[in-house]
Amino acid sequence: MTVTDEAAAPGAAALYQQVQQFYARQMQLLDDGRVAEWALTFTEDGVFAANAHPEPAAGRAAITAAAAKATEEYAAKGVQRRHWLGMVSVEPGTRNRVNARCYALVIETPRGGQAAIRVSTLCEDRLVHDGADWLVEHRQVTRDDLV
Amino acid sequence: MTVTDEAAAPGAAALYQQVQQFYARQMQLLDDGRVAEWALTFTEDGVFAANAHPEPAAGRAAITAAAAKATEEYAAKGVQRRHWLGMVSVEPGTRNRVNARCYALVIETPRGGQAAIRVSTLCEDRLVHDGADWLVEHRQVTRDDLV
Amino acid sequence: MTVTDEAAAPGAAALYQQVQQFYARQMQLLDDGRVAEWALTFTEDGVFAANAHPEPAAGRAAITAAAAKATEEYAAKGVQRRHWLGMVSVEPGTRNRVNARCYALVIETPRGGQAAIRVSTLCEDRLVHDGADWLVEHRQVTRDDLV
């Protein structure tokens, strides 16, 4: 997709489906512990900012390192995480970008234990299409408990 | 869209996307405390009925007043609400209307505290398209704990 | 739909919408206790496998019997179940089939009581289109607590 070529731009329904499908795939990769593949859903210079972190992770290497550490900790504890994104609002941006604003829950289940909501957050993304798929260029996650 | 003009009616995929996008925007407005803008997602004579309320709120003024009161109470308590709608089933209705039936959760997070489900509900809407966007003409919310 | 006829295959946006709508309708039937109608959303020889069950339920009769038993137990306890499917990833399969992988939560609310997550699961489906609608040919539900 290049939005410089107007005719190639997806309609609203196609765009919305692409973002939903992207989010599903992205979060399943993370929750499956496939960190290296998950990191490829960010641009090379992507930024992951969160009000739970002192500083944003900038660039794929930093994003990968942070996710790998968290993934190992969950695996060591025997806890299955599930990231649920919902209430997705998509707004077309400039050129081949969209702004997406959604809610995200982290649901945790310890092995042999009780599933529960860990945190409720707001997730604000700027996504860019690189010709093959959508990628996260900038993500801001705001935990509701820390506001 | 005018459904009097049959050719202009959206297909199933477009309709479903429009309802999902509408719900995301509508609930984000409410959870952001933007009550006046949220109220504009109902028709002027819209009805909001709930088994948790003794009587339906009829008309935008009544709907706005009820939502403003709740919003102020949450702000005073320092609690962030998130309305999650999901499992949306959309059925085309007569003319420029659709019937949508979905589940709705209210997730609450106190500042510095633990996110939790407040209530689980069934939400049944009659939506009408006014030429610009979808609006709620009639909403019935049924709390699962009060059935 | 027959995917042997390439022109009749739905695009990605239509396919995704069809699966979302199918899941919404399917789960609403189950949570409404309409077990016989729900069972018709499986193929005649459909299989429902779960890591919570010693053996898969194979065929509509077995699937119906298991669901009817659970439904009666919930009704007797006065508990409303809500199955939430989300983070749906759809991949086109061979001929008139798709593979869908999603997360599923069961939310329970006792009458007069507090809604809570009962279990968090992974749901992996092979769906087949029979010309009229999608049906589940094979479902594998993996509870996160039993892994």
The secondary-structure element order of chain A is HHEEHEEEE
Label the overall shape of chain A.
globular
The quaternary organization reads as: homotrimer
- Biggest contact: A-C, 29 and 22 residues
Structural account:
3 copies of one chain form a homotrimer. By secondary structure, chain A is an alpha+beta fold. Chain A has helices spanning 12-31, 35-39, 60-77; strands at 42-50, 57-58, 79-92, 97-110, 116-129, 134-143. A 6-stranded mixed sheet of chain A has the order 2-1-6-5-4-3, covered by helices on one side. The termini of chain A are far apart. Residues 1-7 of chain A have low confidence and may be disordered. Chains in contact: A-B, A-C, B-C. Chains A and C meet through helix 1, strand 3 and strand 4 of A and helix 1, strand 3, strand 4 and strand 5 of C.
Topology diagram in text:
The structure is a homotrimer of 147-residue chains.
Chain A: H1 12-31, H2 35-39, E1 42-50, E2 57-58, H3 60-77, E3 79-92, E4 97-110, E5 116-129, E6 134-143
Parallel strand pairs in A: 1-6
Antiparallel strand pairs in A: 1-2, 3-4, 4-5, 5-6
Short description:
Chain A has helices at residues 12-31, 35-39, 60-77; strands at residues 42-50, 57-58, 79-92, 97-110, 116-129, 134-143. The first copy, chain A, has 147 residues and is α+β, with helices and mostly antiparallel strands. Chains in contact: A-B, A-C, B-C.
